[in-house]
Amino acid sequence: MNCLPLVSYLVLLLNSALGSLPAPVNVTVDSVNFYHVLRWAPGPRTPAGTRYKVFRKEGRKLKRLFTSRMTLMKLSLSPPNEEFILMVQAFYNRTLTSDPSTVRFTPYTDTVIDPPDLSLVGCGTCIHINVSMPKAGVDIHSFYFPVYRVVYQKRQGKEMTYDTDDRTFTLRNLQRGTEYCVQVHPVISLNRNTAPSDRKCVFTSAVETSRGPLIVGTVVAVAIVVGGLLTALVCFLYQTGFICKLKAVLPRGPVVGNTPV
What is the spatial distance between Cα 2 and Cα 4, in angstroms, rounded to a whole number? Predict the structure, then answer.
């Protein structure tokens, strides 16, 4: 019996089945602070109950990472300085999409770094600043060694810049008792997906007032209090008879008067 027509029919039927299941679309990796999420959307006319296989391409081999009915999945990608080729394939009732959807992703260049947080403390004619990078899958400061571009200005003043490699530093030679606003932008040569911090404002120190009036006021207040106490003391001594009352003089012997006869 000649089986060639039957084999040809089965091959055509298989090809038709493979091509009938639409491939996933909009395959992307959303990554913030080295926390990665792979996302995709079902292709047009994808039947309900379709499942998805996710692969990582390693040379000529495909390493399956997981199988899921969902259209998103958290990823743990290491090392972060390596490019990853990720592929998503749909399957339903033993039917696979013939051409998986592919996305290329390199964590250390593609992840988005959230803005840092600032802590400001005035110190007379200076401001102490501490920069806190966001919590991430790696230590961002140690991994990238960014340059912190500091932009600062006083109210209605000229904007000034200062670059440093340190997360803790001090702006010096500022005007005493003046409010300054500060913003810091981490600059990373290998990753342009950074953003500046919020602007924060702080006074260098409280404005010192002249001590002359304070000293004079203190002396006057003390004098009034002392004077009042002395007056009260004198009145008390007078009332009790210790002062201001003369003692009666008593005769030292008998007094003999002339009695008329």
Answer: 6
Residue 208 has pLDDT above 80, yes or no: no
Rounded Cα gap, residues 260 and 241, in angstroms: 42
Q: Determine if residue 49 is left, alpha or beta; phi over 0 gives left, psi from -120 to 50 gives alpha, anything else beta.
A: left
- What is the pLDDT at residue 50? 96
Instruction: Look at 117 and 241; give whichever has higher pLDDT.
Output: 117
* pLDDT score of 224: 83
Residue 29: name the closest of 97, 86, 70 by CA. 86
pLDDT, tens digit (0-9, with 9 covering 90-100), for 217-238: 676 677 787 777 777 776 666 6
Tokens of 14: 């298989």
DSSP states along the chain:
---HHHHHHHHHHHHHHHHHSPPPEEEEEEEETTEEEEEEEPPTTPPTT-EEEEEEEETTEEEEEEEESSSEEEE--SSTTS-EEEEEEEEETTEE-SS-EEEEE-HHHHSBPPPPEEEEEE-SS-EEEEEEPPP-SS-HHHHH--EEEEEEEETT---EEEEES-SEEEE-SPPTT-EEEEEEEEEBTTB----PPPPEEEESSPPPPPSHHHHHHHHHHHHHHHHHHHHHHHHHHHHHTSSS-PPPPPPSS---PPPP-
What per-residue confidence (pLDDT) applies to 261? 42
CA angle 80, 86, 88 (to 5 degrees): 150
The structure tokens 């003046």 sit at 178
Give whole-number Cα distances, 55 to 40, 98, 122, 218, in Å: 14, 14, 54, 82
pTM of the model: 0.69
